[in-house]
Amino acid sequence: MSSEKNPSISLFVPGRLCLFGEHSDWAGQNKIYNAKIIPGRAIVTGIEQGIYATASKADEFCVTSSLPEYQEASFSCRMEKEALRDVAREGGFFSYVAGVASYMCEWYRVGGVKIEITKMDLPMKSGLSSSAAICVLVTKAFNELYGLHLNTLGVMNIAFWGEQRTPSRCGRLDQACAFGTNPVEMIFDGNEMDVARIRVGAPLYYVFADLMAGKDTVKILADLNAGYPFARSKNERRLHEALGEDNQGITGRAIQYISEGNAEALGALMREAQALFDEKIRPMSPEELASPVLHRTLEDPVCRSLTYGGKGVGSQGDGTIQFLAKDAESQKKLIDYLSGTLGMTSYSLTLRPRTLVNRAVIPVAGFGTRLYPATRGVKKEFFPVVDKDGLVKPGILVLLEELNEIEELEEICLILNREEQAWYENFFFQPISDAHYDKLPVKMQAYEQKIRRIAQKIRFVFQEEQKGFGHAVYQAMEFSQGQPVLLLLGDTIYQSRSEKSCTRQLLDAYQHCGQAMVALQSVPLEKVGNYGLFAGVWDNKEQTLLKIGAVREKPSVQEAQEYMAVPTREREENYYGAFGSYIITPDIFRRLDEAVRQNLVNRKGEVELTDALAWAAAQAGLMGFVPDGESFDLGNAEAYRNTVANFGEQNH
User: Fold this and answer.
1) Rounded CA gap, 173 and 471, in Å?
2) Which residues of 338-366 are buried (b: 16+ CB within 10 A; e: fewer)?
């Protein structure tokens, strides 16, 4: 039983569905033997069904469940590499968990884990990789309980090598379930594997079903593997074409259609992919891949009327079928038909676009005490800077102009101190006099109209008490309407080094990851005490996405060196502080609400946003993103001097 000193964590890992590119993982891996093989390419997504469990630290490695799916009631073994490997070699469901545990025991300093499987709605042996799901789940349990700081690719790799210690010998694409219910593109180039999330442009209504007919996956894989690594016959050359250049083209088009939300074109591509499979791959295993039930179901008039297209799943054969339904109603009708009339166990899978961030929040309620006495007469957000277009603008206007250029941002909430409301009303909502307007050059008159357009997006929310940054952000909870919002600091402006603004880059990163995000910048060690600091592991090869595992508010140099260093390709020790922009999700607002209601404050009596972000990193997930740009602070004298000197330079 878990306690406060040995907490229990909850885990969920979905099964996976290969949408396109089946067999290309092991085919591409053969490039280590034959350099002419074209890398494999697949599109894989997690599904809505999966394995649920709780986990806690223990003396031994133990997996238990009362679910009827398991003939054995429980499994336990001492945390010794050879003992666990012996269990893995035996096969069966518990061989998978033992394989991963043996790998952990061999390569990491970990103790035991107790896993209780509490629910499983993932179909077994249906081409949906229940074995990979349990391997990923066990890896995640060790990762989170022992603070191993593995990123998603690290979890995938350990789950793969753990399963390789069993008789299963699954392919590399199965562990894509580590990415959750998100479609990803996977590239298999010899021993190298790349994974990238795919943007979904519009809802896609899938149905997949167990054909209830059976197939011999081992025979299929043996027959196809006989054609690798070198093609020696016509059929083998056609197999290489199908899993090589043909597959590259089909998956490339599929990614385009998924990103565009073009369901009709995607469905037609599914039919094309199935025809290609039947033409060039089926001859290698003609008996197992004849798939009469699969083809009969694909051609069923009712199925065709409700769908844009369909194809086989995984190793294909008469195992599992997938369809792309025309809409939500057709999806439901198809499930009813497959389950009720054809007797096939059926499931829905709806891929949806990430919720667009269409609201921004900017707290500006502070008194600007670090810029006193200038702030007796001028709000710090109105301190002037020269922008790259040569115009002298209040800092807040530079920020608002950047937001105005982002089409999907419909409303901007300024969190104000009531005493300073007049500043914003006079600037944004009171037109200048006709005489003043007439004196302006034509260029300036056009910009005055731009200010009027920006003002149309502005809304006010008031912070009645000065109780910290987190308290200020909390005031926008109702404004957020239960959706993620963009949060920017009112005394920070940004300068991009790319064609995209820094804010646009952050929003695009959120669309790929779908988690709460904080934009990050590298800070020198001697200045870490001025920042909220974030540490974790890189989640992409470009080292722009950081899976955050630790958050500390203004740590000492010693603290930073001990706990917050992030290695990169260039240096072993890097430190990342807040850049000044965030994506705040509903769960973070709920955490702030809890802090306000329960008076969870720091020593100054303030509600801190950093605490809510640390909670998100530990519970819901928090990603860091490093924009290609620089942030400029207006909040203190030294920073403002730097901003005036350097912001707006064309080649900065």
Assistant:
1) 44
2) bbeebebebbbbebeebeebbbbbbbbbb
Residue 566 contacts by C-beta under 8 Å, 6 or more apart in sequence? 535, 536, 538, 546, 573, 574, 575, 576
- The three state secondary structure string of 521-543 is EECCHHHHHHCEEEEEEECCCCC
3-state secondary structure 547-605: EEEEEEECCCHHHHHHHCCCCCCCCCCCCEEEEEEEEECHHHHHHHHHHHHHCCCCCCC
Secondary structure (DSSP) of 228-264: -SS--SHHHHHHHHIIIIIHHHHHHHHHHHHHHT-HH
The string of pLDDT tens digits covering residues 345-403 is 999 999 988 778 999 999 998 878 888 898 888 888 999 999 999 999 999 999 999 99
Sorted by sequence, the CB contacts under 8 Å of residue 563 that are 6+ apart come out as 535, 550, 552, 555
Neighbouring residues of 182: CB distance < 8 A, sequence distance ≥ 6: 45, 46, 197, 198, 514
Q: Which of 507, 425, 419, 500 is nearest to 459 (CA)?
A: 425
Q: Which helix (H) or strand (E) holds 606?
A: none
Residue given tokens 């006709």 in the structure block: 434
Residue 62 DSSP class: E
Distance CA 213, CA 291 (A): 9
Query: How confident is the model over 245-257, as a mean pLDDT?
Result: 97
Q: Is 306 helix (H, G, I), strand (E, B) or coil?
A: helix
**Identity at 504, one-letter amino acid code:** R
Query: What whole-number distance in Å separates Cα of residue 535 and Cα of residue 102?
Result: 28
Share of the chain above pLDDT 90, in %: 69
Residue 401, token pair as written in the block: 């102009």
Q: In this model, does residue 1 exceed pLDDT 60?
A: no
Of 315, 243, 241, nearest to 285 by C-alpha is: 315
Do residues 226 and 287 make contact, with C-beta atoms less than 8 angstroms apart? no
Domain ranges of the chain: 9-194, 204-351, 359-646
Nearest CA-CA partner of 22 in 315, 258, 306: 315
10 Å CB burial of residue 447 (0-12, 13-18, 19+) is middle
The beta strands (E) that lie in 403-554 are given as: 411-416, 458-462, 485-488, 492-496, 516-522, 532-538, 545-553
Q: Answer for the pair 623, 548: CB distance below 8 angstroms, yes or no.
A: yes
- Residue 71 has a pLDDT of 53
- Three-state SS at 445: helix
Structure-token match 């060039």, residue found: 280
What does the chain come to in residues?
652
CATH topology of domain 204-351: Alpha-Beta Plaits (3.30.70)
Question: Residue 3: pLDDT above 50?
Answer: no
Locate the DSSP E strands across 39-171: 40-58, 61-65, 74-77, 112-120
* pLDDT tens per residue, range 11-44: 999 888 899 999 999 999 999 999 999 999 999 9
Strand partners, 581: 488
Contact 629, 502 (CB under 8 A): yes
- pLDDT tens per residue, range 504-530: 999 999 988 888 999 999 999 999 998
What would the DSSP string read from start to end of 145-194?
HTT----HHHHHHHHHHHHTTSS----GGGGGGGG-S-EEEEEEETTEEE
Q: 415: closest CA among 375, 457, 475?
A: 475
Amino acid at 388: K
Give residue-wise pLDDT tens across range 465-476: 889 999 999 999
Q: Which of 180, 196, 171, 152 has its CA nearest to residue 43?
A: 196
Cβ-proximal residues to 31 (8 Å cutoff; 6+ apart), any chain: 37, 39, 189, 190, 229
What is the CATH number that goes with domain 359-646? Answer: 3.90.550.10
CATH of segment(s) 9-194: 3.30.230.10
